[in-house]
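I would like you to sit down with the pair of lines that follows and say whether tokens and residues agree.
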Amino acid sequence: VASDHAVAIENIVTAYGRIREVLPRLNRLNDTLGKDPGLQHVLAVVFADILEFHREAYKFLHRPGWKIFFDALWTGFSRRFNRILSSIVHHSDLIDREAASIDIVRAEEWRRKAVEDTRKQEDLYASTQFSSVLTWLNVQDYQQEDKLEQHLEQIHSNSCQWFRDHEKARLWLASSEQKNILWVSGNPGAGD
């Protein structure tokens, strides 16, 4: 009977050792992902299982005369003991799956933010490059508009009239298709 008592105590101590192995991981997950309500719920269930195990072990070891009734008591406790340990393992697996799903969601959020940040950086780079090219070319919008106005004031009133009167040009100007191209060749300033 003494060896049976030693086996019972050894089983209880082994179970506490298994619980001890799980606790650091649970603490890390709680520290990292503890604000997630789903994970909080599963953690609560695991800690409830651990408390249930402790309650049952305490009840078993503090019964008066437990040594006398060891065989009858151990069978019932052993079933509860194994059920609680199985529940702890099952709920620990649930926590791992919940943590993995939270990690996937966070990774997707990070990816979306990285894509958005990259797009913003590319837009800023393109804008900066465009401004740099304009500065290098020394092109200012107001200068271009002023030059256009000067040229428009200098043209002859009938300039390009021959073009507007030409049948192919009129058909092209009247066309609703935007992809049409009219190729005009000739010497510049030669007129008709």
